[in-house]
Each structure stands twice: as structure tokens, then as C-alpha cells.
Amino acid sequence: MNSKIYLSGLLALGLSGLTASACFLPLRVACPNDKTASGIKICVTGVGCVETDNLGTAVIDVGGFGTFTVCVDTTTLPPGATLNQACQKIKVTSDAPPLLEFQLGGDFCSTPPPPGPCWLTGGGTIDKTKGTPNYSFGGVVYPGCSPKAADGGNWNVVDHFTNLHFQGQHIIVDFCRGVPTRSPKVTVNVIRFHGEGVIKLNGQDSPDVPVSFVGLAIDNSESGGGSDMLFLSVTDGASILMQIGASEDAPATISTGNLQIHQTSCND
Question: Domain segments of the chain: what residues?
């Protein structure tokens, strides 16, 4: 069954109340070796500010599409840290914007953190039809030791063919395995996760339909386009509403962007 037609039927039934349009931009400030700090302030002009967690990540709702100026408040950097670029501009064209990263430097970055539980950052596109990506994706999947472990991150995917936007809101990491990689240096390159979220029409004030999902990402190389792989299956319990890749054993290769697995030490 066509997912867009099926979902339109669900929306018509009003399974949940109308929600305002939201567009969550994932952010991260970290050293090349993955060392980072909590409490680094990041501001989006005309939108507001957020602070990083102990993985150096943050998420802010920019409210819609457009070009935004994003700046790190350098007065909130940890001692000994420098920043190679304090401000960046990003053009948000879908409800699944890619991760925007700021790179730390200086003496703060001299000692890499020891390996810890694996987690995922990513953003990019998969395939293309008549100049438009079939899928756009972006977000963060946290490990259990994150202060946001109750939510587990925020993972967004837009299917541009059906115009559906999926948002994973409550995420659990199932396992990490595979082979070592070096950017950053980690001992695994595969992460599997599952959870709950919502699906709705992309860029519209439409009802959120509750869904569950399973995902698997493979970090094969840097920068990732043409090599890294992603599987995602989103269901309402009766039907598959969105799927990337044929199965967990046959995920799709991303076309642009990156899937990056991290192992950063943190307290349980």
C-alpha cells in the first residue's frame, strides 16, 4: 500500500491533535579526537540558544526552513580550548537537517578520551530522482550514559517521494559491533537501535502519528558518502510506513553526508 495514501487516512482520523511545525537542527562541538565538554553555548540568530551535553551535542528547533547563522559562544569553551570557526551558516531545506559540527582545538584536545559506549551522529541523503534526494536524514543516537538517556537522542528522516517526515524521539541502543575505525578512533563500526517516535507530513501542521522503528547504521569510512550504510524500518504496528534498505543485512548506501560512530567515555 502507498505509504502516503495510508498515512493520509490515519491523519484524517485525527489520531492525535495538531502540532506546530518543528524543525530540529542537531549540533555538536568537539575535538577531532572526540574530546568535548558540556555547557558550551550555541546560539542560532533569531531563534535562541542551547547548551551542549557531556557528549558535546545539542538540538534546537529552528521552527522551519531557511538559512540560519549559528555561533558558538567562545566564553563558554572549556579551559585550553580554541575554536577553528565560531560561526557557520546552514541552509535548512527539510525537516531532517544534517548535523552541524564545530571543531575544537588547542591544549584541551591533547588527550583523547578513553573508549566508552558507542553512539551515532549523522546527516545526509540517500539516492536521487530527478535531482531530488529520495531520503534526507540527520540527528543523534545517544548511549545509555548520556544525560538525555531517557530520550536517547533525536533522529529525523524525510522521504521526499511520499513527503513523510519521521522523527525518532525515544531511542534505545541495542548493540555495537564490527571493526575499528580511525576518524575518530573507535573499536566498532556498526550500531543497532530501536524505539518510538512519530510520523507526519513534511513541513506541514499535520497530526503526529505514533510509530515504532528499528535502525542500523554502518560507519565504513570518512566522509561516508558512497560507503556508509543505513537501514530503517518505521511501522504503526500494522503497516510499514517508511523503509530504507531491504533489511538489516542489506542496508542502503548513503549518497551524501556521513554516519559517524563515536565512543566517548562518560559516567553511567
Answer: 3-263
CATH code of the region 3-263: 2.60.40.10
> DSSP 3-state assignment of 221?
coil
Q: In degrees rounded to 5, what are phi and psi of residue 55?
A: -100, 5
Tens place of pLDDT for every residue, the chain, 268 residues?
444 444 545 444 333 333 445 788 999 999 998 999 999 999 999 999 999 988 899 999 999 899 999 999 999 999 999 999 999 999 998 888 989 999 999 999 998 888 778 899 999 999 999 889 999 999 999 876 665 555 788 899 999 999 999 999 889 999 999 999 877 788 999 999 999 999 988 766 678 899 999 999 999 988 888 999 999 999 998 999 999 999 999 999 999 999 999 987 665 4
The answer for residues whose C-beta is within 8 angstroms of residue 245's C-beta and 6 or more apart is 229, 230, 231, 232, 251, 252
